[in-house]
Amino acid sequence: MVAVSFEKEQYAATEGGNPVYIAVELNADPRRTLTVPLNVTLVNGTGAADFSGVPVSVTFNSGEMSKTFALTVMDDSNDDDDECLILTFGSLPVGVSADKPDTATVFLLDTDMPRLAVSYGAPNYTAAEGGSPAVITVELDADPERTVTVPISVTHNRGASEDDYDGVPVSMTFSRGDRSKTFTVTAIDDSAVDGDERVALSFGPLSAEVYAGNPSTTVVNLVDNDSRLMLVTASFDTRTYLIPELAHPVVASVTGTVTVEWDVVPWGTATVPAGDTRKRDESGGD
């Protein structure tokens, strides 16, 4: 009995590249014309338009023990990774059996790169001066399937400068398989009263097929741990208010304008306590 098999169990062909030659072999001279039908199973989203060259069958004449055909992967612009097809034999003629390997898997190697969205992990982070740093996350929405470098841009707000923090890189580099990278921003502990300083991060010019996702910017709040005394000056629009002394109790109302001045702008909310100084009768009986 004649046995038919594929030359190998696996083949690979590159999109837009050279074809792959697949061999079907007999273990003996068929001594007649012999037709071996082929079946194709499409896997992982493979379509009939993704390749060409697979015949419905291969025919051996007397004396022939090997036949080959060329499979070509069509070049398209789709990012269609992991496509493949499986070849098997159909119903074999009488006197012919299938030998191993009786299946052949053909991997279609894609040359197209995915379009990527890059974003920050959150719109806001906090780094405390002398305390916990901020761990900033930069994310891709898919496997880049290549090396991708994402430049980081910095904008200083509310008096922040490069001396107030550390740890922001010039760029982040993603390799094949990477989808998330982090860096750590530390607020420098100094003795200056800095208040609510902020560092805004965005992305620099991105490479082809990479675009800014959401959020495309983030703000690192640098929390100050320093404080100082503030000089408060209060002034009244009238130095003396007169309330007439009456024989019976009355309710007297005195109004005026009090002006409070600071020698610096306070960070946050400041409370100025008010009091009174009594004259003549300290008990307030007058």
Describe this structure in words.
The protein is an all-beta fold and 286 residues long. The chain folds into 2 domains: 2-109, Immunoglobulin-like; 116-223, Immunoglobulin-like, CATH 2.60.40. Helix content is 0%, strand content 43%. The protein has no helices and 22 strands. The chain has strands at 2-6, 10-14, 20-26, 34-43, 51-52, 57-60, 66-73, 84-89, 96-98, 103-109, 116-120, 124-128, 134-140, 148-157, 165-166, 171-174, 180-187, 197-203, 210-212, 218-223, 232-236, 258-262. The protein has a 5-stranded mixed β-sheet with strand order 5-7-3-1-9, with no helix packed on it.
Give the SSE map.
Layout: E1 2-6, E2 10-14, E3 20-26, E4 34-43, E5 51-52, E6 57-60, E7 66-73, E8 84-89, E9 96-98, E10 103-109, E11 116-120, E12 124-128, E13 134-140, E14 148-157, E15 165-166, E16 171-174, E17 180-187, E18 197-203, E19 210-212, E20 218-223, E21 232-236, E22 258-262
List keywords for this structure.
mainly beta, Immunoglobulin-like, five-stranded mixed beta sheet, about 290 residues
Number of domains: 2
Coarse morphology: rod-shaped
What are the secondary-structure elements, in order, as H or E?
EEEEEEEEEEEEEEEEEEEEEE
User: How far is it from the N-terminal to the C-terminal residue, by CA?
Assistant: 131 Å
CATH fold title of the largest domain: Immunoglobulin-like
Largest sheet: 5 strands, mixed
Compute the number of strand runs: 22
Structural class by SSE content: mainly beta
Question: How would you sum up this structure in a few lines?
Answer:
This protein has strands at 2-6, 10-14, 20-26, 34-43, 51-52, 57-60, 66-73, 84-89, 96-98, 103-109, 116-120, 124-128, 134-140, 148-157, 165-166, 171-174, 180-187, 197-203, 210-212, 218-223, 232-236, 258-262.
